[in-house]
Amino acid sequence: MYKLSLIFLLFTLPLLPSTAYFAIPLWAWVSVGISILYALTLILAVEKEWNDGSSDE
Amino acid sequence: MNKALLDTQGTIFLIVYLVSLIGVGIVGLLRSKEKSMQDFYLGGAGFGVGILFLTMYATQYSGNSLIGFAGSAYRNGWFFLVSVTFMIAIVGGYMLYAPKLYLLSKKHRFITIGDYIRHRYEHRFLTNIIVTIGILALSNYMLTNLKAIGYILNYVTGGSIGFAEGIIAMAIIMVIYETLGGMRSVAWTDAIQGVLLLAGVLIIFTVIWIQYGSLASNEELLLQVKSDFFRTPLLEDKVRWLSILIMIFFGISVYPQAIQRIYAAKDTKTLKRSFQLMTVMPLLTTLPLIIIAIIGAAHFPDLDKASSEQIILLMLSKLTHIEGMSYVITLFIAAAVAAIMSTVDSAMLAIASLFTQDIYHQHNPDASQKKLTLIGKLFSWLLMAIMVYLAIHLPSTIWWLIQIKLEILCQIAPAVMLGVHFKNIRSTSILYGLLLGIGFTLVFLLSPLPNKPLGFHAGVLGLALNALFVYLHHKFFSQLKA
User: Under a CB-based contact definition with an 8 Å cutoff, are residues B431 and B472 in contact?
Assistant: First the structure.
């Protein structure tokens, strides 16, 4: 899940054109949408993949 | 000078709020369990979700988030949506080291980032460099926020409170409640400040959306006066976006005051819930601020850089004919002051703990916990006095020097993040990588060379070089040993 979140993070980059929908460019809609997905996967990663095995001693 | 934005009622509210913070400091003092560093600087390391989340939130969202983010969004348009993503990404950065570091901190009773570095690498020079970088980065945070609070109080009172007077008054309040109850007082006041900040942003967003119209209803105006907000992003914009994400991901997530809050959690579940809540906050705080600023850009398109920082205040001040608006303005000012104070007090507490634990205690290993706590409190007063002096007198010509803090701070990420996962990494690999990363970054920032080589921040390329060197050095010596 954490690795998936990093892919989402990368895809928040403004990659699409700027055609405006409701005063927001297309790339911005997509960027916000993927940021929300990124946040959701991070929440799941915190819940499921909290790896606290100590490397100490 | 502009007309005062705070009326008598607003001024009284602000004074009551500020005095109540000292009351919280007194309660923090009464609730302290022992005169120890652990109790003073980590609040006994027993914070539950409510307080831990709010202190993380209020600390991470500084005055810059409320004032500076709106100004940046006004100037950069939709590109500044990168701030929503990078505020979420900070939690991604925590996830790389916090689960393991938290357990280590409980086992070895860490108080500062220096405690962990000393324990993990047993290398005095490396520890000293990382502690020094931490202190410098936090000092920058204190300075910029103290300056901001001086400007805000001066502006909203129409000059009744001078720039220097505002800074001094706020500094005295903060240092009083911080030295009374330490982390307990700071976290509790942060909780109040966090609630004020969130309520302030959401209420102001609603008011502006109703009064100035939605984004859609401002579309034609925006396309007309801010057509540059709608240009298709170029390759250099994409590189800049990526560079900002990397720098914040590795830089802000290793801030010493953030690490101190990780240590202060009551248990793992508390920390997990706090991080999960932090993930949502950029959508409720940063995103509304960007939308407000973009609506503002449609209505006030020709502001210069300094004026654009006050875009929200400007928009609110044009609505004073509406009944009840004075309350909204007061709320915004209180939220801005709260955001700044919560950042300054946390930075001050973290610097004082770094000085006491990682510098004074190392030279005076036999000092009692009571004496160390007292030294920390005295240092806080001295530190605040120095910071106030610098905030008032530092010439703006050297401001650029302290703007580079994040590019240097992110160089300590390998020491923190790799250290918890790979127990065979040598201290020398980390040290040489760190020095190489800092050296590379400074060469680009302090010389006539471009400070964004290939479009990336020099600190980001320095970090890549730093991590690559750590890997190669580690591999080389591992094979030599084999």
Answer: no
**Alpha-carbon dihedral angle through residues B383, B445, B438, B421, given to the nearest 10 degrees:** 90
Instruction: Give Cβ neighbours of residue B211 (< 8 Å, ≥ 6 apart).
Output: B319, B322
A18 CB neighbours in chain B (<8 A) are 230-233
Number of cross-chain residue pairs from A and B with Cβ atoms under 8 Å apart: 116
pLDDT at B396: 59
How many CB atoms neighbour CB B388 within 10 A?
Answer: 21
Q: At what angle do helices B268-284 and B286-299 cross, to 10 degrees?
A: 10
**Is A39 in contact with B89 (Cβ distance < 8 A)?**
no
The helix (run of H) or strand (run of E) holding residue B163 is helix B163-212
| pLDDT tens for each residue of B299-319 | 999 999 888 888 988 898 888
Q: Do B279 and A35 touch (CB under 8 A)?
A: no
> Residue type for B72, please?
S
CA gap B102, B271 in Å, rounded: 9
Cα separation of B64 and B78, whole Å? 18
At which residue do the structure tokens 């940021």 appear?
A35
Choose the closest CB to A46 out of B88, B230, B272. B272
Place of tokens 């307990």: B184
pLDDT tens, residue by residue, B442-476: 999 888 998 899 999 999 999 999 999 999 999 99
Work out the minimum CA distance from B463 to partner chain A, whole angstroms. Answer: 18
Residue B329 confidence (pLDDT): 86
Please give the backbone phi and psi of residue B343, each rounded to the nearest 5 degrees, phi first. -80, -45
- Rounded to whole angstroms, how far apart are CA atoms B336 and B481? 56
The helix or strand, by DSSP H or E, that contains position B50, with its residue range, turns out to be helix B49-60
Query: What pLDDT sits at residue B1?
Result: 60
User: Tell me, what's the pLDDT at B6?
Assistant: 82
For residues B256 and B113, the answer to whether their CB atoms sit within 8 Å is yes
